[in-house]
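Practice problem 4.
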């Protein structure tokens, strides 16, 4: 007789959020002899599959992270239904007769895993170019020739720590030895390098998981034991004040100025603006259509009156298929053409070297939140599926707005006399 399983609902984030962390997974039966499990932890939970006919021959395998903190991507981060589907596939493969299994492949290296993953990422993700750059710079030089079967948690942890301990790569001419900045020695510099190590570890794990799911690696146990640095992705968000934004706009050359103005009035990414066509602007309802965003989902950005005026001017006389924003030479603002002009404009405006184009997106979001725009509305205009990222980066600004609004608008009754005694120290001091 199979051992009875205590059934737990696992199908929504809200339900899973109420579960208490525990070492053993919470289980839900999919079919006879097959269960989907959810291992609750302090951060994102993990999906586990279990199969067998009784307690003595149960087999378990972790199949991915849950989408508690990040949107499901169908690869490393899975929704409940994606986890159920992958559980069925995993068990179906495991139950195949031994004689039907393919012959073992040749020794499989980390380079092989990364190459196969990048080939897949080119057609399935929007960040393949950045993934390739990170892999070429930080994964393959150190780990590329290692056999996946020879990887150990200690080796991967030392590689992760090595990235965190070294300075960032500096722009270097081709054929010259790669230059790096000094090792991080301030809290913020250490945080940034650890954040870089985390992102690179995520790419490595994605490549190894891709290989494991395709049968090129026998087990995922090794890299599952290697954890990212904690508490390093909560940097203070830099944004511009109205006065700073005005200085920056005035410091830009004409073609860049239009792109910067558009970023400030939309909160859109550089790539989204570069891809906009005249037909994407709808003057009747003052919106601009972003056909393809980082998430892969289209959206409509609602414009203010000021934003609508900019787009009316920018689309006047253009054919529907004409790009809205172009460089002085008539070409689109593709790839990295904006970086140096942006740096020069920021320097002329005396705003500091940390002001990048992406800060314009933070500026729109930060000022919108501080002006009382609900977080869900901000998230929707930015193209986020929910408010989690907005709450993470801008939620504290909403709190300051709430405090300001209460102090200005909440009723004052005139029932408390002004103090006649001056305290020796301020309250809370």
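Answer key:
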């Amino acid at each position: 007789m199979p051992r009875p399983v205590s059934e737990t609902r696992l199908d929504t984030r809200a339900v899973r959020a109420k579960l208490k962390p525990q070492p053993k997974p919470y289980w839900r039966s999919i079919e006879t002899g097959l269960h989907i499990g959810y291992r609750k932890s302090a951060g994102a939970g993990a999906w586990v599959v279990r199969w067998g006919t009784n307690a003595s021959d149960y087999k378990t395998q972790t199949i991915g992270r849950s989408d508690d903190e990040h949107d499901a991507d169908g690869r490393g981060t899975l929704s409940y239904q994606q986890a159920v589907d992958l559980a069925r596939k995993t068990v179906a493969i495991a139950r195949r007769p031994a004689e039907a299994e393919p012959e073992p492949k040749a020794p499989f290296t980390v380079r092989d895993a990364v190459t196969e993953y990048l080939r897949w990422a080119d057609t399935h993700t929007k960040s393949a170019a950045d993934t390739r750059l990170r892999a070429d710079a930080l994964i393959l030089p150190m780990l590329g020739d290692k056999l996946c079967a020879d990887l150990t948690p200690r080796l991967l942890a030392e590689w992760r720590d090595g990235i965190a301990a070294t300075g960032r790569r500096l722009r270097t001419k081709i054929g010259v030895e790669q230059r790096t900045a000094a090792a991080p020695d301030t809290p913020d510099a250490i945080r940034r390098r650890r954040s870089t190590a985390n992102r690179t570890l995520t790419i490595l794990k994605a490549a190894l998981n891709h290989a494991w799911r395709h049968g090129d690696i026998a087990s995922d146990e090794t890299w599952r034991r290697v954890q990212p640095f904690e508490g390093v992705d909560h940097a203070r968000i830099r944004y511009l004040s109205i006065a700073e934004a005005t200085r920056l706009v005035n410091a830009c050359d004409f073609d860049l100025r239009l792109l910067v103005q558009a970023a400030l009035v939309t909160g859109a990414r550089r790539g989204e603006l570069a891809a906009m066509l005249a037909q994407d602007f709808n003057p009747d309802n003052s919106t601009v259509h972003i056909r393809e965003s980082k998430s892969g989902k289209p959206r409509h950005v609602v414009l203010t009156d000021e934003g609508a005026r900019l787009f009316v001017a920018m689309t006047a006389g253009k054919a529907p298929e004409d790009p809205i924003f172009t460089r002085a030479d008539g070409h689109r603002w593709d790839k990295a053409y904006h970086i140096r002009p942006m740096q020069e404009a920021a320097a002329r405006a005396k705003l500091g070297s940390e002001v990048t184009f992406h800060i314009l997106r933070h500026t729109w979001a930060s000022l919108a939140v501080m002006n009382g725009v609900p977080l869900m509305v901000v998230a929707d205009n930015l193209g986020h599926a929910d408010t989690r990222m907005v709450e993470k980066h801008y939620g504290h600004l909403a709190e300051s707005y709430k405090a300001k609004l209460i102090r200005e608008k909440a009723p004052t009754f005139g029932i408390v006399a002004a103090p006649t005694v001056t305290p020796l120290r301020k309250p809370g001091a």
